[in-house]
From TrEMBL:
Belongs to the UPF0065 (bug) family. Keywords: Signal. This is LacI family transcriptional regulator. Pfam families: TctC (PF03401). The keyword Iron-sulfur does not apply. Residues 1-19 form the signal peptide. Gene3D superfamilies: Bordetella uptake gene, domain 1, Periplasmic binding protein-like II. InterPro entries: BUG (IPR005064), Bug_dom1 (IPR042100). SUPFAM superfamilies: Periplasmic binding protein-like II (SSF53850).
Length: 322
């Protein structure tokens, strides 16, 4: 009887320890895992959110980069982490894309991650080199249709958002253009500038310096309305695609089974960070439009819709599964 009572008390210890941990959360450093290399847009967003959350929580929030396999390495790391709120994922559109791109994954984005909240999204921009001497999306479409297979579009890699968006753009308009993958957006942009490729679809942030100096010409934004960074640039409706809305989005996820009160604290801190005027201004400078609904419930629904959409795009773009 005594042994049974001792065993019962022992069984309760981890539970009471977890409850105490929840009550004092956070009492140590929180890590936001960015599944891409340091220096890129997603890493910058992660650091902005981390600084804002740190001020709200009164605890250090740091960014840890775990790049590899188009975000799969970082996604898996968080999916397998202890669900105590101290390891959080800065996810991007690459999360649902990976689900459609790989034959198998070591995690399920829909069940192995707990939604915390959607931060915002950066609409993609259709750009050409000034050497192409094209000044509208309609003119680009006419040019490509006149010479099938001649024109090239670069991307940051096979299965990247920019490749899939450009391939979807070409498919929707029955364009025959050739994909040239690069190891990242920077070399793809450099080759576009000098005319080794002809067009590209990517976020505005890495493009703005070259648009400002005239090296690149923006033709359209893949958004419902023009964006503040490029106020004179029309939407894809100018190319005959009024419903073409594609962005790179950013969101926070925790491991599955993370307690609800901890998720609520993380969400509250994330929303406070986004609401900070300095953080909001810097996000806008990155071309990011903050989300209207930041709730975990909305993010869960949003992820499910994104998985279906990108699965369809991958099929249309005929990108082979890896």
């Amino acid at each position: 009887m005594i042994l049974r009572a001792m065993l019962c008390v022992t069984c309760l210890l981890p539970v009471s320890g977890m409850a105490a941990s929840q009550q004092g959360f956070p009492d140590r450093v929180i890590r936001i895992v960015a599944p891409f290399a340091a220096g890129g847009p997603s890493d910058t967003v992660a650091r902005l959110i981390a600084s804002g959350m740190s001020r709200n929580l009164g605890q250090s929030v740091i960014v840890e980069n775990k790049p590899g396999a188009g975000s799969v390495v970082g996604n898996q790391y968080v999916a397998k982490a202890t669900p105590d709120g101290y390891t959080v994922l800065l996810a991007t559109s690459a999360l649902p894309i990976s689900a459609g791109l790989y034959k198998s994954l070591p995690y399920d984005a829909g069940t192995d991650l707990t939604p915390v909240g959607l931060i915002g999204a950066a609409p993609l921009v259709l750009v050409v080199s000034k050497t192409l001497n094209v000044h509208s999306a309609a003119d680009l479409v006419t040019l490509i249709k006149a010479s099938p297979g001649k024109y090239l579009y670069g991307s940051s890699g096979i299965g990247s958002v920019d490749q899939l968006c450009a391939a979807w753009f070409a498919s929707r308009l029955s364009l025959d253009a050739v994909h040239v993958p690069y190891q990242g957006a920077a070399p793809a942009i450099q080759d576009l500038i000098v005319g080794r490729t002809n067009f590209m679809v990517t976020t505005s942030f890495p493009l703005l310096p070259f648009i400002k100096n005239g090296s690149l010409v923006p033709l359209a934004v893949a958004a419902p309305k023009p964006i503040p960074q490029l106020p004179g640039v029309p939407t894809m409706a100018a190319a005959g695609l009024p419903d073409f809305d594609v962005s790179v989005w950013y969101a926070l996820f925790a491991p599955k089974h993370t307690p609800g009160d901890i998720v609520a604290k993380l969400n509250e801190a994330m929303v406070a960070a986004i609401s900070d005027p300095d953080v909001a201004r810097k996000l806008q400078d990155l071309g990011t439009v903050t989300a209207v609904d930041h709730t975990p419930r909305h993010l869960k629904q949003f992820l499910a819709s994104e998985q279906k959409r990108w699965g369809d795009v991958i099929e249309v773009a005929k990108v082979p599964k890896q």
